[in-house]
Amino acid sequence: MSALLLLALLIGIxxxxxxxxxxxxxxxxxxxxxxxxxxxxxxxxxxxxxITLFVFxxxxxxxxxxxxxxxxxxLELLVGLVLILMGIDVINNTHILFGKKSSSNSTxxxxxxxxxxxxxxxxxxxxxxxxxxxxxxxxxxxxxIDSIYLKFAYIALFSVGLIFSMALLSMLVSxxxxxxxxxxxxxxxKIFVGGIAIIIGLHMLxxxxxxxxxxx
Length: 216
Hints:
By secondary structure, the chain is an all-alpha fold. It has helices spanning 2-15, 19-29, 35-62, 69-97, 104-144, 148-174, 186-215. It is built from seven helices and no strands.
């Protein structure tokens, strides 16, 4: 049993590296002003993912509710659209943020407001990602574990691994653009991240749309 739960933790860490997950978190974190804030956005995304994963797990495993696969494909389609919009927003903000001057008071207020906005955005996108991917995760758990308690323990440890690894990875990937390291300018980093989010979003729109079309 301990080996199974350890595997859940490791698979949660592995789940972090899904391209759409990375693109979403980086698109939010690219607009953060510090490594600490970036790590926080990654953790908040993971918490959002965990919330909807547990909700769908309760429905599918606890209440035995049947949800058509087209619902999850539609959610993935929505994730792709959101990624495209986030990518466009990140690229657009490079021109606004780097070309705008403000007073110290308005800057402090703006930073606090932007931090709250980014946290809510990370939570919202995490909720959407968790809903879209919950069908596959629950299906894997259902076919490999018999005990309902172990199923939810597996999902809990999976989520713990996901939250911590996403926070750490978000921080590490954004480090080259931070002032202390400065390997790449903040503006270049945002344009790169925004472009990646758009490309991955378009790919998700195409693949999810094609799968939905085959079900019709």
